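Because discrete structure vocabularies remain unfamiliar, we reproduce here a specimen of the format, pairing a chain with its fold in token form:
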Amino acid sequence: MNLVADLLCLLACLTVVTCDRVYVHPFNLFSFNESDCDKLEKLVQEGKTIVPVSIESQTTPDYEGGMNDNSKLEAPSLSTWGEKERSYLSDLVYVLGMRFYSALQKAQRGQNVLLSPTSLYSSLVSFYLGASNQTALDLQGLLGFVPPSGNPDCTSTAVGSNFLSSLRTIERLVKSGDEELLFSKTLSLFCAPGIALFQLFMERLLPSADAFYARAVDFANPGEAAKQINAFVEAKGEGQSEARLADIDPSAQLLFAVDVRLA
């Protein structure tokens, strides 16, 4: 009987110890407060939109304004990050990067595979910030944005924008370690003529690149559209980029292009 009693006491103690723990989901490390959620919701409801100018335009549109002013970029730093935040972000990027890398290896047997996990993750986060309904939910799951409670739409959107800034900080730290290293990133959005883009969506993409452009292109003529886009990207790259876009769906309304230069 004493043995049974001792075992019961031990079990009770273990139960108490096991229950006396609080699990904090890593996602909460990037959550915004309620006032931030209200602010985001208000901006979406206002629905301010921008219609990009033609890709043939030779003037800088007003909506780009100071978007490409490199002097306004803050010096990269991770001093405000905690160890948990860095670990959580790196895990998400690594896991998704390996999934894509494995898929590419199977599809391109015997060929070299070059993949940047941070650029890949950043692009998918950008897609998520501009998505809605089921597409947004699917991307949310793919990216690992799974909040344990609260308002998932607001929290996830805020977190997505925060992740873009964090990922860009990591990329810029690579350059800051070597002044002779050339590392730059240009983001361009090409949409069909007359298509209006949410201003909020465009502003959320700014932290992810050194330069940002938005232009209208007639996708009805795929061949000509590809030539125009290639020429535009190469011109903005000041001769250091070589665009090789070939196939465009004539029914397309939006094309997302990222030009990364490393030398």
Summary: The first strand starts at residue 49 and ends at 50. The longest helix spans residues 83-107. The two ends are 76 Å apart (CA to CA). The helical segments are 2-19, 34-46, 83-107, 117-129, 133-143, 152-176, 199-205, 222-236.
